[in-house]
Write a structure and sequence with these properties.
Layout lengths: L7 H11 L1 H27 L12 H9 L1
């Protein structure tokens, strides 16, 4: 897996602009979100869900309802 986290210069800029504790918190949050997104991508690639379609949602049923 590629290292897609924040670069050192981005972390440094965050720390300088908003302060070290807040910059670290934002960097940690972004890292956690990145990890969660990768986990979701891995699990969704192996599982594809299809929504069930009831007979009332078919095109012919809608056409019949319009013409009645």
């Amino acid at each position: 897996m590629k290292n897609r986290g924040l670069s050192i210069s981005t972390k440094k800029a965050l720390n300088e602009i908003i302060g070290e504790p807040a910059g670290r918190e934002i960097a940690d949050l972004i890292h956690k979100m990145e990890t969660e997104i990768e986990s979701l991508r891995r699990s969704s690639s192996s599982q594809r869900y299809s929504a069930p379609v009831s007979s009332s949602n078919t095109v012919s049923s809608r056409t019949d309802q319009i013409t009645q």
